[in-house]
Amino acid sequence: MVLSAKNFVADPQFVIPCIIAPFIFTMVSLFFIVSSSSNNVGASALLAAVLGGGLMGVWGTTVYGSANSIGFDRWNGTMEATLAAPSPLIWIVLGRVLWNTFIGVINGFIVLGIGMTWFRVGVGLLNPGLFVLATILTYVSMSSFGLMLSTVYVLSRKGGFIENSMEIPVYIATGTSFAVALLPFYALPISFIIGPTWGIEAIKRAAVGTAYAYGPLLPTGYWTDIAFMLVATLAYFALSFILFQRVETIAKKNGTIEEY
Amino acid sequence: MQVVEEPESAKSREEFAIEVRDLRREYVTRSFFGKSSKVTEALAGVTFDVKKGELFGLIGPNGAGKTTTIKILTTLLTPTSGRAFVMGLDVNRQIYEIRKRIGIVFGGERGLYNRVTAVENMKYFSDLYGVDPGISRKRIPELIHLVGLEGRENDKVEKYSRGMKQRLHIAKALVNDPELVFLDEPTIGLDPAGARDIREMIREMEKWGKTILLTTHYMFEADELCRRIAVISKGKIVALDTPSGLKKLVKDISVVELQTYGATESFVEKLKSLNDVIRVVADLDSERQFVKIQTPNAADVLTKVTQVADGVKIIDKSIKEPTLEDAYLRLVEE
Ligand SMILES: Nc1ncnc2c1ncn2[C@@H]1O[C@H](COP(=O)(O)OP(=O)(O)OP(=O)(O)O)[C@@H](O)[C@H]1O
Ligand SMILES: [Mg+2]
After folding, report:
1. Which fold is adopted by the domain B10-247?
2. ipTM score here?
3. Which among A5, A78, A84 is the nearest to B99, CB-wise?
4. B130 closest CB neighbour out of A86, A249, A255
5. Could you report the per-residue pLDDT of B309-326, keeping only the tens digit for each?
6. How many angstroms separate the CA atoms of B251 and B242, rounded?
């Protein structure tokens, strides 16, 4: 059931925004990161940079794809058919978000692989076990974030203006989370409530230890990062649950679910 | 010995697929900045029952409240007040139980994933409806066969004609083997042959024992298919009967049918002003025009028609029994 939507997210029209665009974006940022840190290019610094690029790919795919999984239904005219099914909407969307994020992770690894070959970075992960754990948990955390984000797309008013003005905060939020996740030294308060920020910290820690060259790490340890992320993730799931319930009630009251 | 009377709900659960009691629904549309708001009363107290296995029609002019009724019964919309039960289940509370047991076809092109194949669409909806994969593997080809899409089932839906899409809509609505199927204008926008195919499928579904609630703007379609018909106008049911029962409402009149060449608005106006003419329905768009005149005195009107013709060529004229359309027009215009 949860994976039911995978066919549709793998739909060709998702490929460009979800895979190719983040990929190009990531490659560009990789060059940028590498060239800007050229004065002290150690192996671990490069690995961190490549890793950062990969994570950016995952993150972009998640946020863009999740939000769009519902926007797509609205645009495609299948919103009503999807809502009419006896599966709670949150499960349908969760299935899509998990799949999107999974594509994001694959995308991230491809970028990572290409980056490693291109810049001749060794595969010397500091702690492969913790790296895998942090990756999986970050995957779940990103999915929960995407799930929460997608509720915004379920409801929409008739007017294009209102719909657009609802989209803008989403894009701003996603843009912001890009920045905070990648550049933690901005230390915006918002970064602390975004679960994947902690996950990304944990991944970097497990991969290259307390590496420099790619922003200083937060003054926490691996397990603290994981704990923060888990708390945030649980909160996202709880919030998503409440939001979806509200969204479904409102949609049924207004009778506006089929509009786009 | 004491006789315990069966509670009404338990009894009706066996007999009725749909029970609607004084259903009301208002839409509040807010102006752009939310200052003023407009309330539309889409349903103003609707009551009717549909028996299990019945093919029931809901007809009425644009905006009468047909789609609103269907949306409430399919749990997509909350009623403002009143009650509705589907298979004995409350539409406000037993949402997922109801959804599992019904199928929905909305007219128009929307509701399918165009970039994938018919089979993939059906698999997807089978999953959403929680159909066991073993069952859907068997059922999907059967449904593809029912709607005559064999050979094209692995083509992408975007390559389908309007009629094929509509047939796929029907197949899709049946993936969960629903007991009750809602068809909201299923033949809208189809060519005559395509519409006839859809009607064939509806009859087939009726034979399988499915309860069907159908809305349509085509009176002959409702007449041909439905066992009983509710006529809804401005959010109220104005008549509910069998097609022949509804036609009895207009048994005092007959219809003079003309086929003309060169008929104009002024000719129609002249016909309307004749004695005993109740209503004139004319289609002036094509080269030859069809004009229907409702009257209690057909013979008289028939002779007078030629007197007012004034250059309009009358190719054919005849007196017909009133149809469902005549009854319908009388009901919704009064
Ligand atoms: N989402 C909505 N917001 C505001 N008003 C609505 C909405 N949906 C329907 N209405 C209004 O409610 C009334 C009933 O609409 P409904 O769609 O039920 O009619 P219908 O009988 O299905 O008409 P049609 O034959 O055109 O499909 C109409 O006046 C319509 O304008
Ligand atoms: Mg309608």
Report:
1. Rossmann fold (3.40.50)
2. 0.74
3. A84
4. A86
5. 888 888 898 898 889 998
6. 14
